[in-house]
């Protein structure tokens, strides 16, 4: 997203649950100097911190529901301020139209581009059930709810950005290395274009 006043640059990483957003963002950070902000990770940290919103967030995550935007946006803004960076890769946000509209209205920032990790439900389900990170939402019941929310609420946001020519779709069913090759090509092209201006 670009913000002319503060020159913050933000790209967005989207894709279904288990499509590999977090894995690829970690690679992008190492190669391209972004700060990675995972909305899900920030919400999980908020639960651990013992915040007054912790119980509500925990319940929403267990049910695969989307936490109210004001909570998530405050966490994102705080993390951005604390990072000292001006280049952010926001992972798993905006998750629905409310997230998108509220973020843009509060921050006046729009994404430069949106990476969309495209993967079948069958493969995503396999990956989530093998993740073994102790997440309360990595069980088959919650995974099915998360897939439904993804289709009903998150895909329309991808379509919105697509209509603005911002989506870069990546075949995320390939190996981690192959997916990263495709990601690298997108970022390299972006920097080459910027250098040519
Ligand atoms: N290309 C890949 N091939 C096989 N396994 C992968 C691939 N990418 C990621 N994984 C594995 O799949 C699991 C989910 O990946 P990751 O946590 O990056 O997904 P995510 O999109 O961030 O999911 P969530 O939305 O639930 O946070 C992890 O165990 C990860 O190691
Ligand atoms: N914008 C968001 C992002 C996430 N959540 C909640 O966290 C859960 C886990 O998110 P991951 O990106 O780590 O998979 C997600 O299912 C939501 O419950 C949210 O509310 N808003
Ligand atoms: Mg993740």
Automatic annotation (TrEMBL):
<dbReference type="GO" id="GO:0016776">
    <property type="term" value="F:phosphotransferase activity, phosphate group as acceptor"/>
</dbReference>
<feature type="compositionally biased region" description="Basic and acidic residues">
    <location>
        <begin position="1"/>
        <end position="12"/>
    </location>
</feature>
<keyword id="KW-0067">ATP-binding</keyword>
<dbReference type="Pfam" id="PF00406">
    <property type="entry name" value="ADK"/>
</dbReference>
<feature type="binding site">
    <location>
        <position position="99"/>
    </location>
    <ligand>
        <name>CMP</name>
    </ligand>
</feature>
<keyword id="KW-0418">Kinase</keyword>
<dbReference type="GO" id="GO:0006221">
    <property type="term" value="P:pyrimidine nucleotide biosynthetic process"/>
</dbReference>
<feature type="binding site">
    <location>
        <position position="131"/>
    </location>
    <ligand>
        <name>ATP</name>
    </ligand>
</feature>
<dbReference type="InterPro" id="IPR027417">
    <property type="entry name" value="P-loop_NTPase"/>
</dbReference>
<feature type="region of interest" description="Disordered">
    <location>
        <begin position="1"/>
        <end position="22"/>
    </location>
</feature>
<dbReference type="GO" id="GO:0005634">
    <property type="term" value="C:nucleus"/>
</dbReference>
<keyword id="KW-0808">Transferase</keyword>
<dbReference type="GO" id="GO:0006207">
    <property type="term" value="P:'de novo' pyrimidine nucleobase biosynthetic process"/>
</dbReference>
<feature type="binding site">
    <location>
        <position position="135"/>
    </location>
    <ligand>
        <name>a ribonucleoside 5'-phosphate</name>
    </ligand>
</feature>
<keyword id="KW-0963">Cytoplasm</keyword>
<dbReference type="InterPro" id="IPR033690">
    <property type="entry name" value="Adenylat_kinase_CS"/>
</dbReference>
<comment type="subunit">
    <text>Monomer.</text>
</comment>
<feature type="binding site">
    <location>
        <position position="174"/>
    </location>
    <ligand>
        <name>ATP</name>
    </ligand>
</feature>
<dbReference type="GO" id="GO:0019205">
    <property type="term" value="F:nucleobase-containing compound kinase activity"/>
</dbReference>
<dbReference type="GO" id="GO:0005524">
    <property type="term" value="F:ATP binding"/>
</dbReference>
<dbReference type="InterPro" id="IPR006266">
    <property type="entry name" value="UMP_CMP_kinase"/>
</dbReference>
<protein>
    <recommendedName>
        <fullName>UMP-CMP kinase</fullName>
        <ecNumber>2.7.4.14</ecNumber>
    </recommendedName>
</protein>
<comment type="function">
    <text>Catalyzes the phosphorylation of pyrimidine nucleoside monophosphates at the expense of ATP. Plays an important role in de novo pyrimidine nucleotide biosynthesis. Has preference for UMP and CMP as phosphate acceptors.</text>
</comment>
<feature type="binding site">
    <location>
        <begin position="18"/>
        <end position="23"/>
    </location>
    <ligand>
        <name>ATP</name>
    </ligand>
</feature>
<keyword id="KW-0665">Pyrimidine biosynthesis</keyword>
<keyword id="KW-0539">Nucleus</keyword>
<comment type="similarity">
    <text>Belongs to the adenylate kinase family. UMP-CMP kinase subfamily.</text>
</comment>
<dbReference type="GO" id="GO:0009123">
    <property type="term" value="P:nucleoside monophosphate metabolic process"/>
</dbReference>
<feature type="binding site">
    <location>
        <position position="44"/>
    </location>
    <ligand>
        <name>a ribonucleoside 5'-phosphate</name>
    </ligand>
</feature>
<feature type="binding site">
    <location>
        <begin position="92"/>
        <end position="95"/>
    </location>
    <ligand>
        <name>a ribonucleoside 5'-phosphate</name>
    </ligand>
</feature>
<feature type="binding site">
    <location>
        <position position="146"/>
    </location>
    <ligand>
        <name>a ribonucleoside 5'-phosphate</name>
    </ligand>
</feature>
<dbReference type="InterPro" id="IPR000850">
    <property type="entry name" value="Adenylat/UMP-CMP_kin"/>
</dbReference>
<dbReference type="GO" id="GO:0005737">
    <property type="term" value="C:cytoplasm"/>
</dbReference>
<feature type="binding site">
    <location>
        <begin position="65"/>
        <end position="67"/>
    </location>
    <ligand>
        <name>a ribonucleoside 5'-phosphate</name>
    </ligand>
</feature>
<keyword id="KW-0547">Nucleotide-binding</keyword>
């Amino acid at each position: 997203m670009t913000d002319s006043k503060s020159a913050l640059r933000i790209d967005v990483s989207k894709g279904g649950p288990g499509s590999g957003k977090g894995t690829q963002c970690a690679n992008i950070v190492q190669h391209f100097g972004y700060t990675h902000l995972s909305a899900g990770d920030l919400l999980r940290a908020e639960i651990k911190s013992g915040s007054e919103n912790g119980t509500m967030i925990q319940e929403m995550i267990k049910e695969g529901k989307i936490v109210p935007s004001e909570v998530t946006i405050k966490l994102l803004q705080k993390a951005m301020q604390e990072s000292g960076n001006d280049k952010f890769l926001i992972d798993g946000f905006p998750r629905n139209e409310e997230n998108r509209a509220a973020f843009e209205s509060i921050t006046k920032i729009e994404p430069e581009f949106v990476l969309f990790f495209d993967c079948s439900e069958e493969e995503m389900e396999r990956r989530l059930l093998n993740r073994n990170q102790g997440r309360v939402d990595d069980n088959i019941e919650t995974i099915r709810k998360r897939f439904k929310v993804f289709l009903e609420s998150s895909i329309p946001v991808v379509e919105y950005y697509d209509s603005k020519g911002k989506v870069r779709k990546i075949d995320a069913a390939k190996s981690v290395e192959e997916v990263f090759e495709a990601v690298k090509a997108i970022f390299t092209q972006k920097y080459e274009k910027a250098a040519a201006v």
